[in-house]
Amino acid sequence: MHNFSADKIFTLKSNNQFNDIAIEIFNDQAENNLVYKEYLFHLGVNVSSVKRIEEIPFLPIEFFKTHQVVSGTAEIQKTFYSSGTTGMERSNHHLADISIYEKSFITSFEQQYGKISNYCILALLPTYLENESSSLVYMVDYFIKESAHSESGFYLNNHEELASKLRSLAKSKTKILLIGVSYALIDLAEKFPVDLSNIIIMETGGMKGKRKELTKKELHNYLSSRFGVTTIHSEYGMTELLSQAYSKGHGKFYTPPWMKIMIRDTYDPFSYLENGKSGGINVIDLANIYSCSFIETKDLGRINEDKSFEILGRFDYSDIRGCNLMVTE
Fold first, then answer.
1. What is the pLDDT of residues 238-288, one digit of tens each?
2. HEC sequence for 161-175
3. How many helices (H) and strands (E) does the chain have?
4. Rounded distance, CA 108 to CA 177, Å?
5. From the CB of residue 49, how many other CB atoms can be counted at a distance below 10 Å?
6. Inter-residue contact 94 to 34 (CB < 8 Å)
7. pLDDT in tens, 24-69
8. What architecture does CATH give domain 100-247?
């Protein structure tokens, strides 16, 4: 990204500022991100005529599997890969400046939960931990180091040790965050139902083929009943994004100021739906300045009147609209 300070992203004060920066980034990536540039060419987009975020074409997320989605020529510092399953093509996200990712995840977490250093963080992410290039593991590892709590750490499948530690910590006045992939939290809840009423339990989604898929409501109801909590928190993020949204319960997610959710019509992906209507989720992530800030995901959702959003499911087809334009080139 040329002549652009990342600090502008994390000090946004208004929607007008967001829109102005989004258009600025769009114009830059339309020129300097060769994959996005070619995609726009195939769509017949006149870049100079795009003046509003609603006019910006979003890059189907599948391109992160088939192409190297980078903007500019800066040297790559770090590459993250999605976990995937055996035989699956994995998404990759190349970062020219890892500090932007760190600034994004620290700021977004602390805006909603307070200082990381005040927490003891216990991470139950076995599948992700086996992926050394996981963006989620990178983030949580950073949290654990920032927490400066002697009991903070990762867990693979040692559920008994984790349950014992949770019982002990629950008696203290320390703020505790148990963050885990969905199937691992279910495993823990089945084997060691513990009263965690004073602990924040946060799921990051993902059954990874280990268990039958559940709706968010089913998952949260089960975990709540087994752990004695009233709400389950959630994190919404992905390899292709450098920003995260958080839910403190009831599946209602809130984005940081530099991230925006838009709901596209599933029958007309270039038009958008009003609040309360369900459709495909498009994400503007201004932190993605060295890749692509405009991503068309495979998630289904809706935006509520209070500006929160909900995840309702995923598209059940494999080929996202538009990918066949360039997949063989």
1. 999 999 999 999 999 999 999 999 999 999 989 999 999 999 999 999 999
2. HHHHHHHHHHCCCCE
3. 9, 14
4. 16
5. 7
6. no
7. 999 999 999 999 999 999 999 999 999 999 999 999 999 999 999 9
8. 3-Layer(aba) Sandwich (3.40)
How far from chain centre, in Å, is Cα 57?
Answer: 20
- Between helices 34-43 and 15-32, what is the axis angle to 10°? 90
The third-level CATH classification (topology) of the domain covering 6-74+258-325 is: Luciferase; domain 3 (2.30.38)
DSSP 8-state secondary structure symbol assigned to residue 105: H
Query: Residue holding tokens 């990342």?
Result: 6
CA nearest neighbour of 120 among 146, 145, 151, 142: 151
Q: Is 100-247 the same fold as 6-74+258-325?
A: no
Structure token digits, residue 20: 């102005």
Q: How far apart are CA 96 and CA 306, in angstroms?
A: 35
DSSP class of residue 237? -
pLDDT band, very low/low/confident/very high, at 74 (cuts 50, 70, 90) = very high
Residue count of the chain = 329
Both tokens of 151, joined, read 């009991």
Query: Which residues are CB-contacts of 143 (< 8 A; sequence separation ≥ 6)?
Result: 109, 116, 119, 121, 152
Beta-strand (E) ranges in the chain?
59-60, 78-81, 92-95, 119-124, 153-155, 175-180, 200-203, 233-236, 245-247, 253-254, 259-264, 279-285, 294-303, 309-314
Say how far apart CA 250 and CA 230 lie, in whole Å: 10
| 143, 121 contact by CB (below 8 A) | yes
Which tokens go with 186? 């279910």
Neighbours of 24 (CB within 10 A): 16
What integer pLDDT is reported at residue 126 of this predicted model?
86
Q: Parse the chain into domains and list their residue ranges.
A: 6-74+258-325, 100-247
Can you say whether residue 249 is alpha, beta or left, with left for phi > 0 and alpha for psi between -120 and 50 degrees?
Answer: left
**8 Å CB contact between 310 and 251:** yes
Widest CA span in the chain: 61
